[in-house]
Amino acid sequence: MEKFFKAAERGSSATQELRAGLTTFLAMSYIIALNPLILSGAGVPISATITSTCFGAGIMTIIMGLFSNRPIALASGLGLNSMVAVATTTLCGGDWHAGMGIVLVEGIVILLLVLCGLRQAIMDAIPVSLRHAISVGIGIFVAMIGLSNAGIITGNGDTLLALGQVTQPSFIVGVISIVATIIFVAFDVKGALLLGIIVAVVSGIPLGITGTPQGVFSLPDFTAFGAPFQADSEGVMGIAKVIATPALLVTAFSLMMSDFFDTMGTAMAVAKDGEFLDENGNVEDIRSILIVDSCAAWVGGLLGASSVTTFVESASGAADGGRTGLSSIFCGLFFIVCAFFAPVIAVVPGAATCGALVYVGYLMMSEVTAIDWSDLLEGIPAFLSIAGIPLTYSMSSGIGLGFIAYIVVAIATGKVRQIKPLMWVAAIAFAVYFLVA
């Protein structure tokens, strides 16, 4: 096992990888309950979606661990599943099989882009300053997700964002998770992030945040598997409806753009904490990561789980010591087990992961010092990406703002020659994406 995973060589061990895998899983486990809730609005059966979510995440995370040997986990993407749900209700006539067909088409196209080298080539064409900015922006975004899950920050009609109610149980649990995580980190306790989550889960019991499981064991429901090839009431398969409908193909393009750059940002974020980001800001073994991620997209559609993609919460496991694909394998196994014990895992409140996600955001902020803020061509696009990712609540939108700004500033400052050809392609693609999304 050591020869394959090289845990000792990377300063890790099987025990450390197990702990990191569990940390990542707990930080992601909310998707087991949340994905079915989102997709049920489009008519997808909840029991079937729980099974699809667990198996989609589990299978692809294990494959990621084996194929890339990096601590990256995958699951049904938030935002992506909302796009699928909206498309199903507004464009597919409520036929969720067609909605999953959109995901299948998107995944196949993005896989072809990886196999022909275009996806990695675009990543390589991104200026180093923007790569650092993307990491910082995602760090803030991750922390924002954690604070939002706990209700420490909340939506407000007058100010967009506001401080939540400090007396709310979720707010208190979120604060406890942050304090506990900081204390464990300060004392250099192994598994600090995982312990912070556990303390928060326990503290949520008397506060009513950590609920009582509605049962323990549940049999998987595989009826959503093969969704794109299942027919509607008129006998038309979902995939056939997508191919024959231009509007659904446009939706597949929009989904692809979001998936394409979300993964890029996530890989960079996890690579930073997992120590496989080189001095030029390039992610080591990126091709294998992109291949698995691209396969995960169409597998998610095939299983009826929406698009499965790399999760930025993987950075919590990497920050907790995950250095190899072994942590991904452990994480994937936890997901598959949960297909049988979903009622138990579903009681872990989102507020309990707040401390881990805030700490990951803190670690990723260090990238901001690598940006030359005195250079307009570096500073302005970097700032727009850093601000855009959390403020638009979308990694791909924030990245797109930075890309387009880089082209504009380069033209304004007479540095057009510094723009690599694929940066032009990516910026134009983002402009189209913003227009049709």
Topology:
Elements (H helix, E strand, L loop, with lengths): L1 H4 L8 H15 L1 H11 L5 H23 L5 E3 L3 H11 L5 H20 L2 H8 L2 H22 L3 E4 L3 E4 L5 H18 L5 H12 L34 H6 L2 H29 L11 H18 L4 E3 L3 H6 L5 H14 L3 H4 L8 H11 L11 H16 L3 H18 L8 H16 L1
Helix pairs in contact: 2-15, 3-4, 3-5, 4-13, 4-15, 5-6, 5-12, 6-12, 6-13, 8-12, 8-17, 8-18, 8-19, 9-10, 9-17, 10-17, 12-13, 12-19, 12-20, 18-19, 19-20
Note down, in words, how this protein is organized:
- A two-stranded antiparallel ribbon has the order 1-4.
- Helix content is 65%, strand content 3%.
- The termini are far apart.
- Strand 2 and strand 3 (160-163) form a beta hairpin.
- Helix 4 packs antiparallel against helix 15 (325-338) and helix 12 (246-274) packs across helix 20 (421-436).
- The protein has one domain.
- With 437 residues, the protein is mainly alpha-helical.
- The longest helix is centred in the middle third of the chain and has 29 residues, at 246-274.
